[in-house]
Amino acid sequence: MSTAGPPQGARSAGEAEGIPVSDAAGAPVPTASYGVLERTEAPSATEAAVESVRLLGYAVLDSCHTGAALERLSSAFDSARARYRQRHGIDALQAIDEEDTVRLMMAHDDAFRGLAFDEHLLAAVSALLPGKFILNQQNGIANPSHRGYNQGAWHRDLPYQHFVASRPLAINALFCIDDFTRDNGATFVLPASHRAEPFPSDAFVARHALQLQAKAGQFVLLDAMTFHAGGYNGSGRERRAVNHVFTIPYFKQQIRIAGNIDATGLSAAQRGMLGFDYLEPETVAGFLAARQR
């Protein structure tokens, strides 16, 4: 610890503006600093969320989908899920532990294509994955009440991987169709676990697991290497969400989007984000033709 004191007259931005700063428990938080040569500025809500994901591995982000748009998504979720279960068979889905999931939501309703293009979301993802990125997967999840489910175990959204990277490789964006509360099993995270290779000890998990409450219409944003788990839903009603995983293009999509959605009206940038530009060439000639383009 440095023994040097701050320069005379050093004040924090909060002190200069007369703004009190306190933590969640109401305790005062130091805001003045000295000896700092570099710092991050986060003047907007999106930049603050990006900073939180980089440092802690998680954030809650507002979306453009509120009011009638949120109601439309809620209705579309239930309709898509009913058709999905009818098509694939509830017994067959239960046999493979897929009864609470709807794969590739935008293939069932165009409303979810619009959700993936949410401006607030893409601004954050673009900052976290600079350059090119694709939507790797978009799945509906209904977390049931009063029973276990597969998302209730700690995991990364790049599962079975034990490495760390200096920059994110994948970003998880869980859109809340319903409020995420303690009662209905809001998502738990292990802060900064995207910076360590192994899963931490049980004692660490017990001390540091944090439950993220969010409102319907918000995104729970994660570095995909942050360990997280759904909580137990004791509310009497299921909790619905749509999970997006954005990755650098080096990762294959969970399900190829090209060919499974109507591409009418997509811009060139949207086609790229949905992976149309990153399909594997079937031949050497096809590869060379793509290089020419």
Describe the protein's architecture and organization:
- The protein has 293 residues and is α+β, with helices and mostly antiparallel strands.
- It has one domain: q2cbj1_9rhob like domain (Jelly Rolls, Sandwich), CATH 2.60.120.620.
- It contains nine helices and nine strands.
- The strands form two sheets. Strands 1-7-4-9-3-2 form a six-stranded antiparallel β-sheet, covered by helices on one side. A three-stranded antiparallel β-sheet has the order 6-5-8, with no helix packed on it.
- Helix 2 (45-56) packs across helix 6.
- The protein is globular.
What are the key terms here?
293 residues; alpha+beta; Jelly Rolls; 6-stranded antiparallel sheet; 3-stranded antiparallel sheet
CATH architecture: Sandwich
- Helix coverage percent: 25-40%
Count of helical regions:
9
What structural category do the secondary elements indicate?
Answer: alpha+beta
CATH topology: Jelly Rolls
User: What spatial order of strands do you see in the largest sheet?
Assistant: 1-7-4-9-3-2
CATH class reads Mainly Beta
Q: Give start-end ranges of low-pLDDT stretches.
A: 6-18
Overall residue-averaged pLDDT value? 92
Q: What is the gyration radius calculated from CA atoms?
A: 21 Å
| Element-level helix/strand string | HHEHHEHHEEEHEEEEHH
Shape: globular
Number of domains as seen in the coordinates: 1
Count of individual beta strands: 9
What does the main sheet amount to?
A: 6 strands, antiparallel
- In the CATH hierarchy, what is the superfamily? q2cbj1_9rhob like domain
